[in-house]
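[job 4471] stage=fold_predict status=RUNNING
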Amino acid sequence: MHISSGRWGYGLFLALLTAVLWGILPIKLKQVLQVMDPVSVTWCRLMVSGGFLFFYLAASKRLPNWRALGPRGGWLVLLAVFGLVGNYVLYLMGLSLLSPGTAQLVVQMGPIFLLVASLFVFKERFNLGQGIGLAVLLIGFGLFFNQRLEELLTSLGNYTAGVLLVLLASTVWTFYALSQKQLLTAWNSLQVMMVIYLCCALLLTPWAHPAQILQLSPLQGWLLLGCCLNTLVAYGAFAEALAHWEASRVSATLAITPLITFGSVALAAWIWPDYVHAEDINGLGYGGALLVVLGSALVALGPSLIAGLKARRARGLSTS
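[job 4471] inference complete, writing structure tokens
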């Protein structure tokens, strides 16, 4: 069983770095999607990230050993590849129809779907703290969509389609996450990411149009490079954060990612109004976003909170 190093300050810094990188990513992607299609953008991100990891692992003589996977390893890799490809492409399709903040908030359902799947696959327990967090999260979503709730429930316009696509992206991400969790028993995180990234890029190659890169403006070209490096650095920081801090606390910290997106959009819209448009959300919607973040954090911290309460109760009984 993995035990964190105890360097919680360093783990907190890496978790915050991951949240910032993931928070600003939709803003950059939104600009690139004005010229490139979602498949081509995804192919570029995966090729750059996977290629960098390949050369790094090859130079350090740490390329993965396929024999270590065992007889079922190939199926796990295949499931992870289709899960990640589906997540990346569907998310970008949804993002092209939504604002960055809305897309980033809806993605918060991914860990919730993973939690529900883990109840059946890994027989994990669902405690009271997580139940409260889930209820808060769902109330938050209801408040966030207060201006367009009728549209979401009664019609299939661009906004509703975008939300459904991002929800579907979060659903297929669950298959990737479950498969990756099993693959980590045979390979380290860098090896897993390299194989999955390169296999995903290979799968998308027939439908990718790399020549679209030539149509990008200089600014959009730099933003695309930033998206590629974001994929590499953010996941690396996330994996390293887990090595130094408890997974529940890392997940709770990452729950602030949508707030970073909203703040970044507001700042970018103020500095570059010709390129980035402010979110069209009322005060009740922003309150709902805060509740979604709080609910996500409670779901992540639920087991730790319950364990802490039980420990305090046990200490109280032992001293009485």
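[job 4471] summary: DSSP finds 13 helices and no strands in the chain.
[job 4471] exit 0
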